[in-house]
Amino acid sequence: MALSPAILFLLSLISCGSTESDPLPPLGCGSSVDAPYQVLCDLESVWGVVLEAVAVGGAVTALVLALVLVSRLRYVYEPERRCGVGALLLLLGGTVGLFGLSFAFLVGRGEGLCVVRRGLWGPLFALCFSCLLVQALRLRRLAAGKRSPSGGSLAGLAVGLSLVQGVIAGEWLLLTVVREGHAACDYLPLDFTLACSYALGLLLMATGMSLGVVLCGGGRSETQRRRWRCNGVWLFLSCLASLILWAAWLGFYLYNDLVAESALHDGRPDWDEPALAVALVTEGWALLLFHAIPEAHLCLRQEAQFSMAAPDFYDPPNQSSSQLQDQGFEEDERAQAQRSAFADNQAFTIEEHSAALRSGAYHNGLAGSRQGLPFRSHVYQPTEMALLMNSGTIPTAPPNFTGRQLW
Predict the structure, then answer these.
(1) What residue range is the signal peptide (predicted)?
(2) Which residue, 292, 260, 350, 283, is CA-closest to 101?
(3) What is the pTM of this model?
(4) Which of 31, 160, 167, 236 is paired with 10 by a 20 to 30 Å CA distance?
(5) Residue 107 maps to which CATH number?
(6) Could you give the CA distance from residue 361 to residue 350 in angstroms, rounded to a whole number?
(7) pLDDT tens series, the chain, 407 aa
(8) What is the number of structural domains in the chain?
C-alpha cells in the first residue's frame, strides 16, 4: 500500500512525457500530416495558406493561357505574330515550374527537397529569361523591317540558352554533394547566388535589348518601329520588374547570411526559405502580368484585325491609306457626275423629238452637232405585234411612211 503513491507519481510523469513528445497538430491540419508539411494547412499562420493559394492560382492561369494560345494558333495567319507563340508557350511552362517550385521552399528541409531546390532554381529562371531574350531579339528584327526567325528556331535557342544553367547547377551539385560529401542542404547563400549568375546575365541582356527596341527600334523604318513598340514596352516592363525582384531577393538573402554569421549561431533562420518562396511566386506573377498576358492579347487582337480586313491585291504599294481613300471618293464623285449628265442628256421634250425626226438626226442629246443617220430613221422596222398579225411574214410599209412612227 505504501508503494501505490509512488507508482501513481511515476505513471503521471510518464504520461506527461508522452503528451509532451506528441504535440497537438495546428488548427486546420490532421494528425496524419507530418510536421514539415503542416505549414501548408496551418490556419493559425495564414501566410502559408495564402501563398499556396496564390501559387496555385498563377499556375492555373498560365495553363489556361497556354491552352487558349494552342487552340487559337491555327487562326493566327500573320507570320510575324505566329513566330512568337513558341517562345511564349515555353515561358508559360517555366512560369508553371516557378509556381510549383515554391512549394519546395514552403515545406521543411530534406535531402530530396534540397536537391530539387538547388537543381531547379537556376534552370527555371534561365528558361524564363532566355524566352524574354529571344522575344527581344525577334522584336528587334521586326522593328528593323527584317524577317523574324521561325518559332521553332526561337524556341530551340531559348532551350539551348537555359541548358547552360542546367549544366552549371548539375556541376555544382556533383562537386558539393558527390565529390566532397556534403549534405544537399549544407550550402552557403553566396554559393547559391553565384550559381544563378548566368540567369541574371540573361535577364540583363534581355533588358538592354528590349530597351533598345523601345527607344531606337533597331532600324530606320518608322512604320515598323511604331507597329512593334507596344510589344517592346511590355517586354521592357517585364524585364524591369524581374530585375527589381532579383535585386530585392538577392539583397535580402545575402543580408540574412551576414546576420546569421554575426549572431554566431548554428543553422539558418527560419524566414529565409519562405522569403525565397515569396520571390518565386512574385516573379511568376510578374512574368504573367507584364509579358505573357499582354503578348497573347496583342497576338490575338492583331490576328482578329488581320482576318476582318480583306486583302486588296490591286493596292499600290507606294500610296498611303488616306491617299487611297481620297482617290476612291474622287472616283465615286466623278462616276455620279457622269450618271447625272447622262440623265440630263436623256431628258428631252416632245417638240425636240419631232424636230429631230423631221431633220433626220439620231437623237442622242447632241442634236445638231452630229450628222443624221437616214438608215436608222427612214427604214421601216416592224414590231413584234405586226409580225404576229401577219403570220410571221414581214409586212410592207404604208405608202405614206416617212419615218419611224407608232401606227
Answers:
(1) 1-21
(2) 283
(3) 0.67
(4) 31
(5) 1.20.1070.10
(6) 15
(7) 444 554 444 445 444 443 444 566 666 676 667 666 666 776 767 777 888 899 999 999 999 999 999 998 888 888 888 889 999 999 999 999 999 999 888 887 778 888 998 999 999 999 999 999 999 999 988 888 888 888 889 999 999 999 999 999 999 999 988 888 888 888 888 888 899 999 999 999 999 999 988 887 655 556 666 778 888 999 999 999 999 999 998 888 887 666 555 544 445 555 567 888 999 999 999 999 999 999 999 888 754 443 444 444 444 444 444 454 555 555 555 655 555 554 445 444 444 545 544 555 444 444 444 444 444 445 556 666 766 666 656 556 566 656 554 44
(8) 1
- b (16+ CB within 10 A) / e for 294-325: bbbebbeebbeeeeeeeeeeeeeeeeeeeeee
What is the residue range of 124's domain?
A: 35-297
- What size, in residues, is the chain? 407
The cell numbers describing 400, all together, are 405614206
Residue 171's identity, in one-letter code, is E
